[in-house]
Amino acid sequence: MIYRLIIFLALNFAALALGGLFTSKGVPSDWYVNLNKAPWTPPGWVFGAAWTTIMILYGIYMAYLWPISEHKNLLIGLYILQLILNIGWNPTFFYYHQVLSGLLLISLLTALIGFMLFFYWPELKLKSLLILPYLIWLVIASSLNGYVWLKN
Question: What pLDDT, in 10s, does the model give residues 122-143?
Fold first, then answer.
């Protein structure tokens, strides 16, 4: 269990760091600062705290799921797709300023995490709730992205 956890945490935080390269430059940019943002946009520090917590819980979730999953190829595919969508949102939104494309990516990621929550529930039972914060955060993040798309 501990080795799986270390591997998934390393992968999750590498993805977070890669995405963060675009976010760290994008947040203070004139483009982002001047956007009409949702009134419920949390302060900047909340994003770091939320993503750190989410990636830890997602790593634990994956470490539990890996040995009991009967379809490893499907699980690997879903995990890789999650990484691509998660990492891909940052440059799409912050670097290329493609707000609608970002909304599409984050909506797909939200659907994917929701799918994983319910699809793997029979195997993990209550341990599936480890990805519930991820799903909740993605719903919030999707609403923030959607607001930016509608109001700018």
Answer: 999 999 999 999 999 999 999 9
Query: What is d(CA 127, CA 120) in angstroms, rounded to the nearest whole number?
Result: 10
Give the count of domains, the chain.
1
The CATH number for 35's domain is 1.20.1260.100
Domain that includes residue 72, residue range: 2-151
8 Å CB contact between 8 and 117: no
| H or E segment and range at residue 72 | helix 72-90
CB 63 within 8 A of CB 8: yes
Q: Which amino acid makes up residue 108?
A: L
Residue range 69-100, pLDDT digits in tens: 999 999 999 999 999 999 999 999 999 999 99
Structure-derived torsion over alpha carbons of residues 144, 145, 146, 147, reported in degrees to the nearest 10:
50
Q: What share of the chain is helix, strand, coil (3-state, %, to 5)?
A: 85, 0, 15
The count of other CB atoms within 10 Å of the CB of residue 40 is 9
Task: Tell me the C-alpha distance between 24 and 22, whole Å.
Answer: 6
> Helix, strand or coil for residue 98?
coil
Alpha carbon distance 73, 77 (integer Å):
6
